Amino acid sequence: MKFMARKGRRTVVSLGASVVLVTLAVGSESIASGAIAGAAPAGKFAGQTLTVLIPAPTTNVAAVNEFNSTVMALFQKQTGASLQYQTYTSASDELTSIETSAVSHSGPDVMNLGTTLVPTAYATHDFATLNASDWAQMGGQKAFFAQQLKMGGPNANSYIGVPIDSVPFAMAYNTALFHKAGITHAPTTWSQYVADAEKINDPKKGIYGTGFDPADSYDPWKDYWTFALQQGGDFVSPNNKKSTLASPAVVNSVQFWFDWYTKFHIVNPQSLTWKGSDLVDAFAAGKVGEIPIQTINSVPTYLSGAIGHNFAFAPPPSVPYGMKAMPKGGQPASTIVSGQDDVVAKYANKALAVQYLKLATSPYVQRLQWEQLNELPVITSAAQSAVKSDPKLVGPFVTSLENADPTAFIGAWGPIESALAGATEEFATKVESSHQLPVSYIQSVLKSVDSQIQPQLS
Amino acid sequence: MVASVANVGPVAGPAPLGAPAAGGGGLGVHTAEPGVRSGNTGATPVRRRMGAVGRRPIWLAVPAALLLLVVVGVPVGLNVYLSFFNITISNLSHWLSAPFAALRNYGSAITSPTTGAVSAVDALVVSVEFSVVTTAIAAPIGLLVALSLNHRFRGRAALRSVYLVPYVLPTFVTAVVARMMFMNGTGLVDKALALVHLGGPSTYWLLGPNAFWAMVATDVWASWPFIYIMALAGLSSVPSDLYEAAEIDGAGYMAKIRWVVLPQLRNVLALALLLSTIYHFGNFTLPFVMFGNPPPAPVDVLPIDIYYRAFTSFQYGIAAATAVLTLVVMAVPGYVYLRMTRLASSGAQ
Predict the structure, then answer these.
(1) For B98-148, how does the pLDDT look when each residue is reduced to its tens digit (9 = 90+)?
(2) Which helix (H) or strand (E) is B266 found in, with range?
(3) CA of A418, closest CA in chain B: separation in Å?
């Protein structure tokens, strides 16, 4: 990531060319030196083909293709088998692949899924559980970030998902606006966050202290979830049997988020219809002081905007609004465990699939993944290398990851996300029409959401 | 004088479908042949031809019937089957052994909400309102444009092509552009309305009740060319001697429209309105892309409701039941369509 921070757009443009050279050089080195330790004897899987479903690249396409070519060549070299990639283009496409695979018992052998979809895949009972021997081939579970593993299954003995890349969230802030407002460091409490935003706020110039995106399908629930966990609450009960979306912690969380609009006036009054991309664009344009959850993938957009290099990341605040310390039972919840996991279909050749997983999670490929695609490693040794390469940029994300909390591992998580997106739409409509969001209204809507979700938990 | 032109009406249009044509003197005699050609009038010739078809060996229809069975019959039958079972993500891989739910899925589809507290009945109401209102606005636009292009003038061919642009644009593209245009504060719609003092500079169009009208306006823009194409095709089949007869009778432009053109277009327009309504009813892409995921309640149409039931709530049985209910609702215009195209009557023969 250092190359982006230092050289900006020019580097992004030249990335494609350099990637070819780097990949060829490093790839051939690895093949020649047998960089992946303990590879299966070539020939055991000769003539076989492993199909892997991955998200279609939307940016950095040349780099992704080069990276995939390198992995394919390594896989062929190590196992004698061929590796083929298939792609999906959207979250619904991703979900459809799981469903089709479950119904037809055929399809891709390995699927690269977003972490919040792994519980859905688990619920189909159509994906293989990885045993101790499988994990041993991947260097053991200890090689991975402990938090990142937790979205692979309900417990360590029944993981179906193997982390491949990590996308933790961190708070992003505009260093120029912070400096201008006399703020010297990122906030660690939500009270401080609001106070800083109020200092930065300058609506006459179109600058707002913070921002939100109520029309986004995913961002609102992630903010509610962070606030709720820090207060000691959650969306479901600890045993995952009861929907607690109308609990005081969640109601407070929703209220606090919309208070940014109705009470503190620290977000753009036009932003009730914003999606995540609108918020990122506004931040990149230098119009927003701080935003609570951003990923490292937004950096190229920042660099191409008016904000230039005047941004920094920090772990999000962990102390609830109005408090001086996290209450009893509260958790930092810096980020959800976010990223991509690989799952192996039961109909696949598991032994061959494990060979692929071993390759994909090897320190060498994980490092390559970071260097070429800017995707954070999931194994600690490669992540340390990434931090060393650019501590200021990568450090906050790794710190966030260390304080990450997994979302409840339940098949109903997808419906919860969707129901909360619908509820947020109702909240935004209410705010638009009356410029306020009464607690009673939040409770009423969330009780309705509770009643939708509860049948899927029992 | 115009009274004799008015005789065209009973001959060309309102005769009951399948009934013998109400022959008449004057202009009515001239419309019989064009009517048969365009499928508008005169049941006797049509019946004769149908009879001829009926005498052909029935096995000729077997390949088409088999294809229909595979492409339409099997999926519909499967959907009806699924609607009676409690299928969720946890038993999806063994859906054939899912527990029988009797009519519970139908009850849930009607009463229990999906996202945004919208039930299938709410979504049905939105869908009906959307399809009817959109068609009602698009139809006169399409008809007027077709009439304006019905006489020869320089550049007519180019205009005819340009008018088709909204119709040929992928709905996804239309929805993305519409989202940008209707964005509050920064969108062109707000700016334009503020410029002419018809609205504030930051009216929310993608949220709340206004969302419905934003969706209607966008779909009208995208779909009026369909009515225009149908009307243009109908106009090209109006025999010129009818216009000449009307002129001889002293009819002016408006009288010819009223007493010659509209009666001749009646069936074509009715078909266009019906197909347009059905199309709007099934429009999924526009609200899905234009408003976010999920869309606000005022634009939460039935196809969206089914999608969320199946693909975010994993209530496959309820989604299937909702789809069956949709099928029942759509059977009404479908039956009317069959009657209008005389397939129903030909099937009876």
Answers:
(1) 999 889 999 988 887 766 567 788 889 999 999 999 999 999 999 999 998
(2) helix B262-281
(3) 6
Cβ-Cβ contacts under 8 Å, B312 against chain A: 414-415, 417-418
Q: How many residues does chain A have?
A: 458
Q: Is A213 on the interface with B (CB under 8 A)?
A: no
CB contact under 8 A, A425 and B114: no
Structure tokens at B112: 């229990």
The Cα of A452 is separated from the nearest Cα of chain B by a number of Å equal to: 7
ipTM comes to 0.74
| Cβ burial, residue A290 (10 Å; 0-12/13-18/19+) | buried
Q: How far is B125 from chain A (nearest CA, A)?
A: 19
The answer to whether the bond into B34 is cis (omega within 30° of 0) is no
First to last CA, chain B: 42
Instruction: Tell whether the model's pLDDT for residue B20 goes beyond 60.
Output: no
Amino acid at A282: A
Report residue B294 as tokens.
């999920």
Instruction: Indicate the SS3 state at residue B150.
Output: coil
- Residue A51: what pLDDT? 97
Instruction: Give the strand pairing for A339-344 and A161-166.
Output: antiparallel
Residue B115 has its nearest CB partner, among A95, A124, A419, at A419
pLDDT band at A437 (very low <50, low <70, confident <90, very high): very high
Q: What does the alpha-carbon distance between residue A211 and residue B263 come to, in Å, rounded to a whole number?
A: 59
Q: For B99, phi and psi rounded to 5 degrees?
A: -65, 145
Write down the pLDDT at residue B54: 55
pLDDT the model gives residue B115? 61
Residue A213: the pLDDT is 95
Asked if B186's CB is within 8 angstroms of A452's CB, the reply is: no
* Beta carbons of A63 and A15 less than 8 angstroms apart: yes
Is residue A127 within 8 A of residue A421, CB to CB? The reply is no
- Sheet of A288-294, strands arranged across: A208-210, A288-294, A170-174, A311-314
